[in-house]
Amino acid sequence: MLDWTDRYYRYFARTLSQHAWLYTEMVNTGAIIHGDKMRHLRFDDIENPLALQLGGSEPADLARCARIAEDWGYDEVNLNVGCPSERVQSGSFGACLMAEPTLVSDGVKAMRDAVRNIDVTVKHRIGIDQVEEYSYVRDFVGQVAEAGCQTFIVHARNAILKGLSPKENREVPPLKYDFVYQLKHDFPHLEIIINGGITSHEAGLAHLQHVDGVMIGREAYHNPFSLAQVDELYYGAAPSAITRDQAMLAMRPFIEAELKAGTPLRFITRHVLGLYQGVYGARNWRRMLSDAKLLKNADWRLIEQAMREVAPREPQPAEAIAHAATAPLAE
Asked: Per the annotation, does 293 bind a ligand?
């Protein structure tokens, strides 16, 4: 989710779900150790629970970054062993590391030794290139689990390291959910979370009959209002009464503070374009909030104008609007 799950999207997502576990973009260890930590690690407290997703392969660097993540207040550090892009491979991390389970195990152990109170998890594929045997991912998980990893997030596709783009790697290799189910059967003591091609809560709940958790990526981005059901369906919370309008109004203090700090409005609005998906007028909403001319030097008033373009309007009692704009978003 590079360039997608930045702090602006995560803040927006948290207005819709209080309990969903959020993940950062993948950040490589070198950027954290040698780069601008504020740029790569900054987040708002409202985003918790939040995991820092790391890309890297050198155990000492992974350990150092895991310690930094804990010091910064992250709830989890996740090692990405699933990204298939050639740019990531050139740095010797991502999906190519599935061919080196010993190195992954060394990295996991180093990270676990470096932190005190947060979890270390691994996100990976079921195989790489033309490896089709279930035993490949079984042995990978078994070896990494011996290093102390208890949670595996499994994208139920192979990663094709040469010849397919990252987008094609999300679509071309066939989904093999049964491989992920089998992992849970073979390692009942581990937490197994399924990922890949899940586009509805109905599908997510069906997967929970076989595994411990569900990760939804692009569907949650393109149709963010689906997050409003997460707390009820997956965490047993009371049904959410939030509307799309209220979610946007809840963002107003954050947006205005960011604008005052010099953040261009387009950095935020690009993440909310799918909010009114399925509502008449959604095209106007997307058009206005992605128009470079309108966004230049724009402020909150552009969002208010775009909201008026969406019809039919959701009923918004005045007191409800005031509450949505001022209420705290987390306890």
From this structure: no
CATH of domain 244-326: 1.20.120
CA distances from 89 to 13, 46, 105 (A): 30, 33, 18
Summarised one tens digit per residue, pLDDT across range 280-306 is: 999 999 999 999 999 999 999 999 999
Q: How far from 303 is each of 96, 252, 298, 309, CA to CA, in Å?
A: 43, 9, 9, 10
For 148-185, the pLDDT digits (tens) are 999 999 999 999 988 888 888 888 899 999 999 999 99
Q: Is 196 annotated as a binding residue?
A: yes
Cβ 92 vs Cβ 58: under 8 Å = no
Superfamily the domain 7-235 falls into: Aldolase class I (3.20.20.70)
Q: What is the pTM of this model?
A: 0.90
Question: Coil, helix or strand for 317?
Answer: coil
Is 217 marked within a binding site?
yes
Verify whether residue 149 is a known catalytic residue: no
Q: Which of 60, 58, 29, 25 is nearest to 42 (CA)?
A: 25
